[in-house]
Structure formats: structure tokens, C-alpha cells
Amino acid sequence: MRTFKKLLTAVAGSAVLAGGVLLATPGAAVAAPEEGIGHETKPGQPYAGVQRDRDWLGSYIVGDKQVWCVQFALKAPDTGEQYQPGDELLTKWGTPLPDDVAANISYLLLRYGSTQNPDEAAALAHLLHSWTSPPRTPDDLDPGKPFEQIAYDVDFQFGKLPQSTKDAVERLRADAERNRGPWQASLAAPEQEQVIGQQADWTFTVEHPDGRGVTGVPVRINATDAEVEGLDENGTITTPESGEPLQLKVTPTGPNPKVSGELATPAERPHVQEAVQNPDGVQRVVSTGGEKQLTVDDTVPAVTAPGTVSVGKVDEQSKAGIAGVALRVSLPDDQPALRQDGTPLTGQDGQPAVITTGPEGTAEIPDLRTPQEIKITEVAPAEGYEEAFDPQQPPSVTGTLEPGATLALNLSNKANTPTVPIRIPAGDPGAGGVVELPGDDGTPAGLLGLGALALTSAAVTGGVAYRKRLVSAGRR
User: Fold this and answer.
1) How far apart are CA 379 and CA 355, in angstroms?
2) Alpha carbon 220 to chain centroid, angstroms
3) Same structural domain for residues 378 and 405?
4) CB atoms within 10 A of CB 309
5) What is the mean pLDDT of each run of 10 residues along the chain (476 residues)?
6) CA distances for 182 relative to 101, 177, 210, 212, angstroms
7) What is the pTM of this model?
8) Does a structural domain hold residue 5?
9) Domain hosting residue 130, numbered range
10) Which of 63, 113, 163, 223 is the most buried (most CB within 10 A)?
């Protein structure tokens, strides 16, 4: 199905609509009609006993607007007429239009009312006359009847049309049968909250009651706290020719993105406004309307981009990473930090989550809500760092996590007091083996202890030599 071309612009520039279809107002001056887009056919259909040279099948220009005459053989609209909302469009015989015919007329006026194609214009005029002025009996086609009583000779008029116009008649008729109203429109934001600055799809659908998508419908989009991709200079986008829903690419720019879509849909029934009763007869014209306006909207909260906290646990002196350190992640008041989805970051015990540094002494906490202040607290020291750990005031660090950023936080630990080994000779000074014992007070104490052990060793050696001398003296 072809798309609406400049339809919204044409509608916006037309007269005020009620159901979209209007007729000339009383008191209009009589002036020569101005034919618009269409075809003339020769000879014309006779009536009132007169053989006529031509008929005009197409639009008329009234007040700079393209309009359509809906009752055959009535005086064409004049150029001075103005428009007001009016009554329901009836047949030439004053009877209500069947529901399907009324819906067809509204649809075709909406879809083709602003056409600039002569074949489409002539086809639309032919269908309008066929539906509003058809013969009820063969007597309605008596050429002796005056114009007020003559019916539109559908077969006679169709036979005079160019083949291209005949093709357009069948195409428009089939289009109306398939795509007439009522239409239903809806707009759905993503179920999950969006992220400011990150694009997501919103789904806009225009459907028939049976669920088929309506194609080629221009939709005017308005957005607050958001930008929508793919709009033309008038802020419109068109439903796909595939019949699939229209996917709007929406990027939130604030916390409360809202998108609305406005479209023209076929009215259930067209309306007209009667003109003054002129000596030549009553004029009935239909504007380029036939539509009613629908507006649908939706909104969804948007949050800032998530952030990541990167924690490093290092030795105070060497700056080497310390593995296996338990760290608690919380807010400064020791309440749980928040994940991006707004849920608290807790462990199985319901308390703020505890993480452990890896082999390199680092750990990461991704997908956190931003902005928020994050506190990292040491829960228990690693082996070899127990002395400097105060469980009443454990080491901690705090920083603010910004949208889309990585917050780097570092904690350093002081190693336990180093120990100095004590070397005990395991034999003569040249012997290789030693026994190592820990000193109590560091290097000086260790050295003194070694000297004492050396003296003790010397005394023991001297005692052994003295006993050997006593034994030798006795033998003598």
C-alpha cells in the first residue's frame, strides 16, 4: 500500500474538522467552479433531456483547498465557499450510508484526499458518486429526469474512463475494503527502566481490529526527556510497509522520558455541511478530511549509566597486591550499596556483600547504581598482616561512583613486625648445618643471644679438655 504523502501537512492546513468531512456554508456567493485534479470524460451523462458534452471526474479547489463533490449532477462548489463542521453525509436520496460504505469513504478521503495523481483523483470521484448517488431502480437513470433526481450511471461513467483510471478505481476500492477503519493505535515503552544516554526500542503499532498492521501511516512524534531517531523535518515517521510495528529508537536525555504519537485515522462516518439553496440546486462537497485524530503516549523511568568499583589491596611498603583479603561493600552509613536495578547488594545473610581479593590483590564490583557513595571496609586481615588490624576500627576507604565510570579505591596493609633468625652452629665453626630460632626483640637481641650461646659452647669445650687431662695423669 502506498504511503500517505504530506497528509499531516494537508490536514493541519485545512479547515476545522468534525469527523474530518465538511460541506459549504450557507450564504456563499455563486461563482464559477475551479476544477482541480482529475479527468474530463466525453460525452457527459444526459439528464433533463439535454445531451451534455462532458463530465468532470476529479477534485475541485474551494478556498485554496482540494475538495470532492459527492452527489452527481449537483452544482459544482464555488470558489468563495467557507467551511464549518456539519451533518452526517447521506446518499443523494437522503438515506444513511451503509456502515461499510461510510467507512470506505472516510478511508479513501483520508488516504487519497490530497492526491495529486489525476488517475487517483478521477477514481476517487467515481467511487464517491457510485456510493452516494447510485440508482435505486432503472428509472433513476431516465435521461429525462432533472439533475436533482438523476442517479449516477456507474457503468456508463466507468466505461468512459482511461484504462489507467479504471485500474486506479479497482485499486482504491480494494484498498478501502482491506484497510478501512476503525484503526487502533498503541505505544509501548520498554518494560525495564532505561539508561540515560543509551538507546532502546519503543514499539508503536497501528492495527486493524483483526490485528493486521496498517502500513504507510505517518505518525507525528513528540518527546520530552528523550530524543527519537529517524524522524523527518516535520517530526514524523511512517509505519513500515511490511505491516510490522514501528520500532522507535529512543534515547533518554533525562530521568522521565515520555514519547507521544499523533496520527490521523479514518472516521467511522464522514460528515458534510449543506450550502445555501441556490436556484440551480444544493451543493454538497467533502473536504480532504475523513479522519479523526488519535494520540497515544507512554513513559518509563530512566536512570544514569551504571558504574564499577575497582578495589586494590596492597602492602604498605612494597605496594605488592595482597590476595585473599575479605572486604565489605556498603554505603558510608554501612547500609547495602545499590545495584543498577535498584536492589540492595547483599550476601546470603542479608548484610552488605563481602568480596575477596584475587591473586593480584584486586576485586571488582560491576553494575552499581550511579551516582552513589561507596565504602570499602576490611573485614579480616590476610595472613602476615594481623598485627596492624584493629577490629574496632578496621581500615576503610570511601569514594563517589559517577555515571558510566570506574571508581578505583585502594587499601594498604602494614605487614607484621619482621623476625630475625638466630644461627646456632651445629659443630665446628666450619660445619654447614645451623638451627634457627626466633629472637624476641629484633636484631640486637638476636646478636646478644648468639654471643651467649657461643660462650656456653666454649665453656663446655674447656670442661671436656680438663677431664681428659685428669684421666691422663691418673694413668701415670
Assistant:
1) 10
2) 15
3) yes
4) 22
5) 31 27 34 78 92 91 80 65 66 91 92 94 96 95 91 95 97 94 94 93 94 93 96 94 94 96 90 50 58 91 95 93 95 96 94 95 96 95 90 94 95 84 53 37 35 34 40 41
6) 13, 12, 11, 12
7) 0.64
8) no
9) 18-181+268-286
10) 113
